[in-house]
Amino acid sequence: MDSPAGYSLTLTQKVRLALSVFAIYWPIKLYIFFDHLTWEGVQRFWWVWLLEITMTVLFFTAWLSLSERLERWFWGWSESDFLVNIKLPAKLATLLVAGALAIVLNLAFYNLWVTVIGYMNRADDPLHQVPSMKAGLATPVDERITALTKRATQQRERFNDGLTVMAMLSAFYLAANLRGYKQLEELRVKAEQLKREATQAQFAALKNQVNPHFLFNSLSILSSLVEVDTRLSVQFINRLAKAYRYILEQRDVEQVSLKTELDFLEAYVFLLNIRFDGKLKIITSVPSHEATRYRIAPLTLQLLVENAVKHNQMSIEDPLIISIYKDANTLLIANPIQLRPQPESSTGMGLQNIINRYRLLTDRSVGVGEEGGSFIIKIPLLP
């Protein structure tokens, strides 16, 4: 698995996150420090607020970068799935260190801010001028008012410190969650990719298994057919070449036109009819204009027909009838259930592989079930 460096937030994401936290932090701070706001006050101190907004957003952005480095430091001795499955000790340690660091940085930022504002206002701020002797001596009431004012100011400053630290920890928590989400999303994509590759490998193996089996049976039929009917043998060879060419051409293709698949099925059914000599009937009821409109996974029909032939018995008196027809945007393949007395051994991978393939191609699933004594498979047609 990648290191957390692979899941770092971009500068744009950090700035957006800093602005989001600031949008909550700033109104609360204004509410604490100002009993009421006037338009005159806004006009007088707008430059101060603009400076503070800029410095605060930059401060939060820098904090996100620093906290990200802090998280990487804990990565060195934590597990490889730190962002996804962080353990409680590492989580508490990270939070405590982040909290302590937030307090230190907040004090440094506060001192910097006081220094900047003090420097800019020292010349014209009467609070910084030395009182003259004409001011007289302070009375006990004045001292009490001054003490209460100072105490209220200190309480507001402490509340502001707590609010700032809380905002910093919130930004840290949101950033960690966002990085964890990015990692989970990447893991999900990788899992889907591996699943797709596994399904494609299974289907490729299945086609490789079909090819020699199909060719062997066809050549066996052809060897006996040549001595009986030369004209039919030529037709058989032509259809065999067409069918086998289609199998080879669709080796790496995910979708084909339904008409192309039906044309292949026609050649394949011709070969099966020669093989089973009237014991198998396949009825296709799909209009030509509908067949050109939809797409299907290649070799779907061949595998389903072969599956029906493999599990059901057939005879001249009671042939196996496979019906292929369209209902809305679904292709149905149905056959009466007339199972063999001794069914052939089967892994069930053929039908399951078709289900898995369509799961990757569409959100609609392949339907498999029994209705009225028939075994019906519903294949979703692809646009």
UniProtKB/TrEMBL annotation:
One of its GO terms (molecular function) is phosphorelay sensor kinase activity. Residues 177-209 form a coiled coil. Signal peptide: none annotated. Keywords: Coiled coil, Kinase, Membrane, Transferase, Transmembrane, Transmembrane helix. The keyword Glycoprotein does not apply. Residues 201-280 form the Signal transduction histidine kinase internal region domain. InterPro entries: Bact_2-comp_sensor_kinase, Sig_transdc_His_kin_internal. The keyword Hydrolase does not apply. The chain crosses the membrane at residues 15-34, 46-66, 92-113, 159-176. It holds the Pfam family His_kinase. One of its GO terms (cellular component) is membrane. This is Histidine kinase. It comes from Spirosoma endophyticum.
